[in-house]
């Protein structure tokens, strides 16, 4: 099995587990932890892609809400501490990456004649 | 939110916003694909599949650039706030445009392999040790995954379920996605681009996003919310002369929480500055009929108890307020969301 096959197998397993969790959560769990979802069914299929992708986080939040260990104060504390430095890093990264790409670009003189550096596999066989 | 969930909460503003957005995408694709294919595209002869891939890919890039400009623009100038209102729909549409781009790419460049086309995408180029010829596809895959996660978790259910700070943290992936897209384009199509109209628009859009974020960050640092004086048990917010009827003064507590102290009908009330919906800045909203309206998405709260009007059930924490001389002070220990606190009357000034 090559690396690409392993990666795709992991993706398949991840999605299958997510599918099982989506089934249980949307049929039974969601009504227990969110009163606004009770009696509301049409919107539930919209949640399936999200559950397939971030199911470990769904399990973590589901558990916290089921156990009643949610800290209400944390809901009102947005993550803003690193805002300034993230914005600076983000702004600097954009031109730097563009420059990197530009510096790697190969520009040949118009008179350049392409040269074959190796034979094709079929030609080698002959 | 807070009444029964429905797939999409439509209103006339959202219809208009989406109509303009869809029309813009349609016009862009029409120009790129049909009207002026030579201007934005590569000069070399390419087939329809590749041409469409480039049209949708560049469209997704420009949409992402616009999305990322909205935040800093709204922070720099409040007149851009209406653009923020329906940004999630914009993001979902961008994800679909990006998926279409990826579909065209995979179904052309990797569809004729004997292997599974997704496997071929992963193993076709593994020259990770060099810049020139770097497998730029990985940046595209990463960016696409981020966009899909953001789109898939855009329903209001996710905000309530994950909590606004966790949801926000996940949605900061948009910055990583944009950096990845910049790398995807810089190490991908730009390596071979002969017609530089696209190159110039790409650089201009990227620099626009970078400069706006830089300006907004500096603006925030200069004009951001003041840190409260934490020398005592109560926090000094401001002088009473700095309070304006119908508006708030915001103070940052030592733990990072922000509190908005409002003056309404001559009385002071304090609530959390973070809206229960997306943690929008309530202190930047105005009070109308005892309710402060969040400038981001219009959620409303009674400033005396932090509760949304029925039938909505959102609540934010409240804080105790007192006056010491002409200083407005708050108790930094928040009351549980929805707790009523008796408003504190301002002293009657001479001539009032």
Q: Any low-confidence stretches of chain A, pLDDT <50, length ≥5?
A: none
Individual helix count of chain A = 4
Q: What is the makeup of the main sheet of chain A?
A: none
* Unreliable residue runs of chain B: none
* Helical fraction of chain B: 40-55%
What would you call the structural class of chain A? mainly alpha
Report the strand count of chain A: 0
Mean pLDDT figure of chain A: 88
- The outline of chain A comes out as elongated
Can you put this structure into words, describing what you see?
The complex is a heterodimer of chains A (126) and B (352). Chain A is built from four helices and no strands. With 126 residues, chain A is mostly helical. Chain A has a domain at 3-76. In chain A, helix 1 crosses helix 2 (48-67). Chain B is elongated, with a radius of gyration of 25 Å. Chain B is built from eleven helices and twelve strands. By secondary structure, chain B is an alpha+beta fold. Chains A and B meet through helix 1, helix 2 and helix 3 of A and helix 6, helix 7, helix 8, helix 9 and helix 10 of B.
A few lines on this structure:
The complex is a heterodimer of chains A (126) and B (352). Chain A is mainly alpha-helical. Chain A is built from 4 helices and no strands.
Features:
heterodimer; A: 126 residues; mainly alpha; 4 helices; 62% helix; 0% strand; elongated; B: 352 residues; alpha+beta; Rieske Iron-sulfur Protein; 2 domains; six-stranded mixed β-sheet; three-stranded antiparallel β-sheet; 11 helices
SSE order and pairing:
The complex is a heterodimer of chains A (126) and B (352).
Chain A lengths: L2 H31 L14 H20 L15 H22 L16 H5 L1
Chain B lengths: L11 H24 L1 H4 L7 H29 L4 H4 L2 H23 L7 H7 L13 H16 L3 H7 L1 H8 L1 H14 L9 H28 L2 E2 L7 E5 L8 E5 L5 E7 L2 E6 L14 E2 L2 E3 L6 E3 L15 E2 L1 E4 L2 E4 L13 E2 L7
Parallel strand pairs in B: 1-3
Antiparallel strand pairs in B: 2-11, 3-4, 4-5, 5-9, 5-12, 6-7, 7-8, 10-11
Helix pairs in contact in B: 1-3, 3-5, 3-10, 3-11, 5-7, 7-10, 8-9
């Amino acid at each position: 099995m090559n690396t690409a096959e392993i990666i795709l197998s992991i993706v398949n397993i991840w999605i299958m587990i997510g599918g099982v969790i989506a089934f249980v959560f949307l049929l039974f769990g969601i009504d227990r932890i969110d009163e606004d979802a009770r009696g509301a069914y049409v919107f539930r299929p919209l949640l399936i892609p999200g559950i397939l992708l971030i199911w470990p986080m769904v399990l973590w939040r589901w558990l916290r809400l089921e156990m009643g260990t949610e800290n209400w104060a944390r809901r009102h504390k947005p993550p803003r501490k690193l805002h300034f430095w993230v914005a600076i890093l983000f702004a600097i990264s954009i031109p730097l990456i563009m420059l990197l790409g530009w510096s790697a670009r190969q520009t040949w003189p118009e008179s350049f004649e392409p040269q074959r550096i190796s034979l094709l596999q079929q030609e080698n066989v002959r | 939110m807070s009444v029964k969930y429905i797939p999409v909460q439509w209103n006339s503003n959202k219809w208009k916003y989406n109509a303009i957005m869809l029309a813009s995408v349609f016009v862009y694709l029409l120009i790129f694909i049909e009207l002026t294919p030579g201007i934005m595209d590569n000069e070399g002869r390419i087939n329809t599949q590749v041409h469409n891939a480039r049209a949708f890919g560049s469209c997704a890039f420009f949409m992402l650039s616009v999305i990322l400009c909205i935040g800093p623009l709204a922070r720099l100038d409040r007149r851009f706030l209406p653009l923020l209102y329906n940004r999630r729909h914009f993001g979902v549409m961008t994800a679909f445009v990006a998926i279409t781009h990826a579909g065209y790419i995979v179904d052309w460049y990797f569809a004729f392999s004997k292997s599974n086309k997704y496997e071929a995408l992963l193993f076709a180029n593994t020259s990770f040790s060099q810049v020139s010829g770097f497998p730029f596809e990985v940046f595209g895959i990463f960016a696409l995954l981020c966009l899909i996660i953001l789109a898939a978790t855009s329903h209001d259910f996710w905000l309530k379920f994950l909590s606004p700070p966790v949801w926000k943290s996940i949605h900061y992936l948009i910055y990583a996605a944009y950096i990845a897209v910049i790398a995807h384009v810089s190490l991908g199509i730009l390596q071979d681009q002969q017609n530089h109209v696209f190159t110039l628009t790409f650089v201009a859009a990227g620099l626009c996003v970078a400069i706006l974020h830089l300006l907004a960050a500096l603006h925030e640092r200069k004009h951001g919310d003041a840190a409260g004086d934490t020398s005592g048990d109560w926090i000094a917010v401001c002088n009473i002369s700095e309070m304006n009827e119908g508006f708030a003064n915001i103070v940052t507590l030592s733990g990072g929480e922000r509190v908005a102290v409002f003056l309404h009908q001559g009385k002071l009330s304090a609530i959390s500055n973070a809206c229960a919906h997306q943690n929008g800045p309530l202190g930047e909203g105005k009070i109308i009929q005892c309710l402060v309206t969040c400038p981001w998405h219009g959620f409303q709260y009674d400033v005396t108890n932090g509760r949304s009007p029925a039938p909505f059930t959102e609540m934010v924490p409240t804080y105790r307020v007192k006056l010491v001389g002409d200083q407005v002070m708050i108790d930094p220990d928040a009351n549980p969301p929805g707790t009523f606190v008796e408003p504190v009357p301002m002293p009657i000034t001479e001539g009032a």
